[in-house]
Fold:
Amino acid sequence: MQWLIVIHVVSAIIGIGPTFFGHILFRRRQQEEQLRQSLALFQLLNLFPKIGGSIAVVSGVVLVALSGWKFSDLWIWISLVLYVLIQVVAVGLLTPVVNQLKQVLDGEKERSTAMDVSTDAAILLTKANRLYNTASFLGFVLILLMIIKPM
Structure:
């Protein structure tokens, strides 16, 4: 069972770790070309939570099934709900905003790349930042629950 714990922890680190780098990518006051590069890197980093997070969930479910914990334990339920909420925020809400941001930037290609982003892009960037902060906060709470298992 120790190997399963290692898989769970490593996949969680690989899955969640790069997502905290996204705060740098969604920073304000970027020039248009910087923002384009940030969004491209964000797409690449998005692979880590998809793969690592999925392995973490599957290995966590197997851990619960093989250990003395129960699926009815409150901390496990809260953890699963937090994971679902993170997915709703990151996939259901953040992804469309990032796609809109890309469309706005693609529509502004004729502008000079040395200029700051437009007002529309800045609004979408602020919205993306807010959603990303929400998902990160939920992820932080999820990590705390995994460490302290309070209930």
Notes: Helices lie at 2-16, 22-25, 32-45, 47-66, 74-107, 119-148. The radius of gyration is 18 Å.
